[in-house]
Amino acid sequence: MMDFFNDYRKLYFTALGLFVVLTMLVAIMPAISNQNNNSPLPTEEALSEAALAGKALYVANGCVACHTQQVRNLDMDKVWGKRPSIAADYADERRTDLWRNTATLMGTERTGPDLTDVGNRQPSAEWNLLHLYQPRAVVAESIMPAYPWLFEEKAELVEGDVEVPVPDAFRKGVKGKIVATKDALNLVAYLQSLKQAELPGAMAAPEFLYKREVKAKAGASGGEDMGLDGAALYAANCQSCHQASGEGLKGAFPPLKGSSIVLDDNPEVLIDVVMNGYDARPEFASMPAIGTNMKLSAAEVTAIINHERTSWGNSARKVPVEEVQKIMDLLKQTAKK
Amino acid sequence: MCTLKPAAMPKQGSDKIPKERSKHFYVILLTTSILLPTATFAQSGSAGDSGLFSLPGILITITLLIIPVVAALFLLAVKANALFRNIQNKKDAEEATRFAAYLKTLNVEQLEALQNDRLHQDYHLNNKELSGPFSPEDSRGLLSSINERANIRFIEAKRKAIVRPGIDPALSKLILWFLGTATFWLVFGTSVGEYIGIKFVAPDVDQVSWLSFGRLRPVHTNAVFWGWSSLAMLGLGYYVVPRVSNIQIHSLNSGWWSLILINASVVLGTSALMAGINNGGGEYREYIWPIQLLFGIGLVITLVNYLRTVANRKTTEIYVSNWYIVAAVMFAIVISIVAYLPNFQNGLGETIIQGYYMHQGVGMWFMLFTLGLVYYYLPQQLNKPIYSYSLGILAFWSQIFFYTLIGTHHFVFSAIPWSLQTVAIVGSAGMIIPVVSGTTNFIMTFRGAWHKVAGSYTLPFFIVGIIFYFTGSLQGTAEAFRSTNLMWHFTDFTVAHSHLTMYGIIAFFLWGGIYAIVPRLTRQEPPQITVGIHFWMAFIGMMFYTIPLMWGGTMRGLMWMEGLPFIESVTMMAPYWLWRAIGGSLMWVSHLVFAYNMYQMINPRKTVNINEEAIKKLHANDYELVDILDK
C-alpha cells in the first residue's frame, strides 16, 4: 500500500480524481440540472432598462454584503415575502456580461433587511431616495451607509429633476436643492422592481416550516387587538415613513400625531388609506397601498390603527376587529367596481 | 445572573419582550455565563447619547485617528535615531580608514614595538602564583559551582532558533519576499477590516463611494485570503516542499513568477473592487476573471514547481506534508476553474457553485495547505516526530471525502434542492472524522514535550491554532444543522465563525511557521517581548471580536424567530458591534507589532567596530587579488 503512495503520480492522481468526481456530483451536475430544469414564472415581469441599470449599481456597490434576496421556507422569514423563494424565481438570472458572472444576489448576511419583496413592502420612490441619500433621516437607528454621491446639488430645478426633501439636520451644509441623479433613480427603479411574482393558479407554494407556536390568546375573541402587537406591526409596516414618534418628516411624510384622519371617530378613511394608499396632498409624498401589498389581515389592520389612535397623545376610541373587517370588505367591493 | 438579563436585552422596547423569549435567554445564560463581564459592559457602551464626544463611534474614530499619529511620531523618532547612528557609523568608518592608513606608514621597528606592547598588555597572572600547582579541596562544591548570574529574570528567556546548515540564500530571498508581501497584505487587509468594523458603530464616518461598506468588505476578505494567507502559505511551502524531499526546489524563477502574479492579482483586484467592478457578488469570487486568472496562473506555476520537486525527491516516501500541500494547490486550481467557468452558472446554478466554491476555497485550499505546513513545522519545533503517520493519512482522505460535500450548507432552507442541502449537512457532520484525527495527532505529538512550550515563542501559536482547529471546525459542523441554522444563519454569528477559523486556525499556524523559519533564514531573532505582545494582542483581540458577535448573533436570530421588528434587532446589536470594533483594534495593532517583528528579523543589523574594521581594511587592500586567485 505504501508503495502505491510512494509513487507521486498515483498518489496525486488518486486524490485529484476523488476530488473531481465529488465535485462533479455535488456541484457541477446539480448546477447543470438546476440551470436546465427551471424556467421563470410566466407571471414574472422582466426588469426595465432603468431597473437593469439599477441592478448593476446594486452589484457594484456590494449591497449584497448586507441584504439577502431569498425568502427561506421558514416561518420566521414570512415577514420578507408571501411565500418561500423557489428555483423559478432565480431562473431568469443570467451572466451579466463577458467580464461578470451571474448575480443571483441571494446573499449570506442579513445585516439589513431582506429585499426579495421590497418593491411591495416599500415602493415609495420619495422614501427610497431620501433613504439612499441619508438612511438615518428616515430610520434613526439605521447603520446603512449613506450614498450622497448618487445625488447632486443644484441651485435651480430644471424640468424633470427629482428633488429630495432632506431634513435640515442631514443637509450637512448643502445650501442648494438636492436632486437625484439618473443613477439614484435607476437604483430606486430596481428596488421597486423587486417583487415576488404570483404563482400561477395550479402551483402550490412550498410551506413555511418551523411554525412559531401561537401563544394562547387570553379572552380570544373579545380583545380588540386579537393578541397582536400593534406597536410591532406599526414598526414593521409604517414607522420607516411616519417615524416612531408618529410625527412624520416635514415635507415628506405627514404626521399621524393629531391627524384628523387618524383621530376620526369613523375609521373608514383611515382604513382606506392603510389598505389602498393615499396621494391627496401635494406637499407630501404619495403613500403606497401598503395594506394590500402586504396582504394585511383585518386583525393586523385593527392592531395597527388602534396603536395609531391611542399613541403619542392621540386618544380616539379603539375600533373592534369586526368593524374593521366590515369596512375592509366594503372597500374590496368598491375597488372591484 | 440577574444583572445580566437587562443588559442583554435591547434598549428599546425591552418591556415588551414576551416571556417566551426570556426563557431562551436563560438557556443561553446558563450555557455561556462566562460572558458576564462582556454583556454588562455592553450596556454602558450603548448608553451614551449626550453630546458628540460621548458617542462610542466618535470616540473610537478619534482613538483610531490618534493611533496612527502616535505610530507615525514613534516611527519618526526611530528613523531619526537610525539616521544619527548611521552618521556616527560613517564617522567611525572614516576614523578606521585613517587609522588603517596610519598603521601602513609604520616601519619594522615600530611594528615590533607594537607587538611587544601587545604581549605586555596580554600578559595575565595565571592565579597559581600563590597556591602552586595543587587544586584546593572542595568537597561541597563551594568553589566549583558558583552561579555568577544571580540576577532575577522577569521574563523567561525563550529558546533561540538552532543554527542550522545555511539555506540557499537565493531560496531564502524568495521565501522572505513571499512572507514580506504577505505581511503587507495582512496589515493592509486588516486595516480595511478594522475600518469597516468601525462603520457598524459610526456609519457616517465617511461618505466616499470608494470607501463605502459594500465595496470595502470584499476588499478586506480578498486581501486577507489571496494576499496574506495564500502568500504566507506558499512562502512557507517553498521551505517545506524541497526540505522534506531532501532536494533543491525545482525552479526558483517560477517561484518569483508566482509571487509577482499573485501580488499583481491582489493589487488589481483591490483597485477594481473599490472602483465598483466586481464579479457579481458571490463571496470570495468578487475579483473578475481576468484578475483572478493571474492568481490561477500563479498557482499552476507553483503546482508544476512543487510537483517537479517531489518527483525528483531523494527520499523514498513522500512525507505527509507534501500530500497536503500539493493536493491543496491542485484542488485550488480545480475550484477556481469550476467557479469561473460560465457554463453552469445561470439561475440557481450560480448559487450551487457559489456554495461549493466559497467553502472549498476555505477547506481545500487554506485548511489543507496549512495542515500540510503544520505536519512539518510542529514536529520540527518540538524536535520529535509526528505522533502517527496513519492518522495524518486518515485525516487527509476523510477531509477530501467529507469536505467536498459541504459547500451548500451556506444555503440551507434556500431554494436549492432539499436533498443537496441534506448531503451538505451530512458531510458537515462527517467532518468530525478528519478534525478529531488531526487534532489527536497534533496533541499527541506534544506528549512528553509540553515543557518545551514555556521556552518557545512559536509553540503558543501552534497551540492556539490546534485549539481553534478543533473548536472552530466543530462549530462549523454545529452551525450546519437545520435547527441551529434557524437561529444563526444570516447573523453575525457566521462572521465570528469565519474569524475563529481563518484567523484562529490559519493565521495562528502561519505565524507559528513564520517565527519558526525566518530566524533560521536570516540568523536574526525577533525581540522576544514584541513576539509576546503580538501573540497576546492577537489572541485576546480575537476573543473580544468573536464572543460578543456570537452572543449578539444568537440573540438576533432569536429575535427574528420571535417575529420582532427588524430594526429592534439592529439597535440590540449596537453594543456587540462596538465590542467587535474594540477586539478588531487589538487584532489590528498586533499585526503592526508582527510587521515590526518581521522587520527586526529581516533587516540586517550592523554596527562598526573600529579595530575590527581597520584590520579588515588592511587585509582587503593587501590581499584582495590573492583572495580571488585562491578561490
From TrEMBL, chain A:
> Mind listing the UniProt keywords for this protein, alphabetically?
Heme, Iron, Membrane, Metal-binding, Transmembrane, Transmembrane helix
PROSITE patterns xrefs: CYTC
Q: Record's SUPFAM superfamilies? A: Cytochrome c
Query: One matching Pfam family, short form?
Result: Cytochrome_CBB3
Q: Which residues form the Cytochrome c domain?
A: 49-195, 225-335
The coiled-coil regions, if any, are none
TM regions (residue ranges): 12-32
The record ties this protein, via InterPro entries, to:
Cyt_c-like_dom, Cyt_c-like_dom_sf, Cyt_c_oxidase_monohaem-su/FixO, Cytochrome_c-type_DH
- Write down what this protein is called: Cytochrome-c oxidase
Q: Which organism is it from?
A: Pontibacter amylolyticus
Organism lineage reads as: Bacteria, Pseudomonadati, Bacteroidota, Cytophagia, Cytophagales
